[in-house]
Amino acid sequence: MELTFIGMIQVVIGILVVFFGSVRSALIFLLVSALFEGSAAIVLPSLGGSSIPPVQFALFFTTLRILAPKGGYVALLPSAIADNKWYVLFAIYGMATAYLGPRMFGGAINVFPMQPDPSLGPFGTVPLSPTPQNLTAGLYLFGAFMLAITSYIFCRVPNAPAALVKALVLISWLHILTGLADILTRGTGMESLLSVFRNSNYSALDNSIAGFVRIRGVLPEASSYAGLGFALFVANAEMWYRSINPRATGLLASMLALILFFSTASTAYVALAAFGIFFLMRAILFPNAAPSGKLFRAAFLGFGILVALCILLAIIPRLPFAVYELIMDMTVGKPASDSGQQRLFWAMQGWHAFLSSYGLGVGPGSFRSSSIITAIMGSMGLIGLITFGLHLKQVFEGSKRSAWGAGYTFEQSLAGALGTAAVFSLVPAAISSPHAVPSALFSIMASAAIALRCLSASQSATPDRQANEAPRGRISPHQLRGRHA
Prior knowledge:
Largest sheet: 3 strands, antiparallel
Region (Disordered): 461-485
Strand order of the largest sheet: 1-2-3
Transmembrane segments: 56-76, 88-112, 137-155, 167-185, 253-280, 300-323, 372-392, 413-431, 437-455
Strand content: under 5%
Keywords: Hydrolase, Membrane, Transmembrane, Transmembrane helix
Helix content: 55-70%
Order of helices and strands: EHHEEHHHEEHHHEEHHHHHHHHHHH
Number of strands: 7
Number of domains: 1
Protein name: Glycoside hydrolase
Radius of gyration: 22 Å
GO molecular function, one term: hydrolase activity
Structural class: mainly alpha
Distance between the termini: 56 Å
């Protein structure tokens, strides 16, 4: 086990958080660590070069903060487990099958492993058998489960909801700035400053396509940067839609949308299209769910971005053709490409593993997929699909008004925004994730949404029927106790 320089920095910050930090500092520490998905805090050479990412390492210190005698948060642990029961069952079953699956069904099928031998080629396979990646996947699932519990407990603490909004705004700015720094330093001596953060065992893919520089930030590839940026984009867009710190969240949503457009990642284009359809359908079906004037401002903003793009395209004559070629290559032409064929081959492994294991799953880490859906299907079978689906239903809470617009209290509105963001953060994972473990941001935002609804219910004596009515004014993050319409 080797502690990297990132891990050393986290040890210092983590100790400060445990002994002197507040809930706000713990939330910021956890969320900032989640930005470094392509980094390693600890390298494990004995497990085939596997690593522990910064967010999982930060989780160790935030868990200690919960257990610290001065915190007084341990009493919330039973309710955190109970309210996240479907996610807990999902993680526990995944950890169990990570050990049992490849042993029960070893040799039954051939799979493309998570860490293949270069001699295999793009479509080579090996017989299913236990590997160090099964242990790593089990640890990641345990980390996802603990991230959800930690997020829930922190969000049940007074003043934590406002701190969570500020932390999300902060990491959104950091994500944008690392992307811009990546573009500005590409090809210069300063490029190595960002590359030191890509110290995990991930392959760095093409840095440019169709003449465009691919935006990676501190992550190994453009699709990873786009997937993380899309989750933050939806979180900010949904908070703006519900008038939560609207100036900051509206500006961030606009900037993230632009940087996603120029990220050259096909996952970004598909995800933006999916959210755009959802936004349009919501406006048609639930026009009164949004605070007054939001739909008009959203339409005006979209028109303004379109005009700005038209001006840019007019100034640079070659740009329209380059953009057209880029979008066609990364969307329509993607399935016919070598990478598209390889992704389809990886995705189909989940279906074959599902059938070969009689719906039980061959265990997380047993094979490489290209979609979290087929990865869960093949790794954790029917039980994994059902428990994860029930968790998503609980996170979104489509029967509540706050799922579609502003809620009756600040907590309800923020819960609706984060629940929507958590669900939509799975769109990039559904078309690009190699494994069955949801992202750290999903675990944090999904559990926060559940916790905030519980916090709102405990603070208000208003009947459920009235609690689902939306207010008609702006909601400030400082209104922690809720207000009546």
